[in-house]
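Sequence of Sigma-70 family RNA polymerase sigma factor (Streptomyces palmae).
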Amino acid sequence: MSDSPAGDYTASSVEASTEVFVGYRELLFSIVYNLLGTVADTEDVLQETWLSWSAKKSRSPHQEIDNPRAYLVRIAVNHALGRKAAIKRRRETYVGPWLPEPLVGRVADEQPTADAAHRALQGESVSMALMVVLETLSPLERAVFVLHEVFGYEHAEIAGILDRTSSSVRQLAHRARAHVQARRPRYQADPQVQQQVTERFIDAALGGDLDALMQMLAPDVTMWTDGGGKVRTAGLRPVIGREKVCRLLAGYAGRAPQDIDIHYRHVNGDPSAVVFSEDSPYAVLVMDLQPETDQVRGIYAVINPDKLSSVRPGGEED
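Predicted 3D structure, token representation.
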């Protein structure tokens, strides 16, 4: 290692740029995950963002970036948008309904870890139900919606990030907001109510109490089961309607392992159920409630083992 002042400056510059990136990593993870819906792709984009950031700093070590936060967000968002084409091709060959990879957090009274995926849950979280709707937007519409509606960026700021005019960003924002509102009006269920409904739902489903399920489910309830073609019992399309969903749940209950263990965790910010069998993740279940009645209008079941591989009984993820 060089003892020259230049060598010292380079070392300190690398350390400083690393510290800046790490300081914004949680924000970058949250934004990119909300754009892509998978942890692996998000981590790849963050790695690409770090490489772009470190290359910029190494090329111009004496040049100060006035707003590193804005610079890093712009890099991350554009890397994420560049990855969307490959993700779309994967989705076209995906077997059955596709659901976002669940971010499983700890219970409310535990301390969060330093991991970006967990810490993201303590800030801006987009529910599983809304993530599903966001999949129907164009990549640019989704980017504008996430940046404006979730993270509070102004249209002018988003225009700079996406290299678009402010007027075009406003048009994208209007279309995205109207699309989302038509498919899922913005509603945040009371967390305590959602927790209680989830626990009652699990008890009724596992106990085969069809009467209780019928009272709990909205008439037009929809159930999505994401098995990724790797779980034989997973359906190939969403199931719609109270009676059909009840029959499906009764079938699942009859085939469930005998040694299941239920952990109630926050998934994408919502109180949810994580099911384990012999300490291995078996399913993640998220309930979406109807505003007027608190009946269950959406059930999101992630049982694809690839999407559960990092989930641990204690709430930590690898």
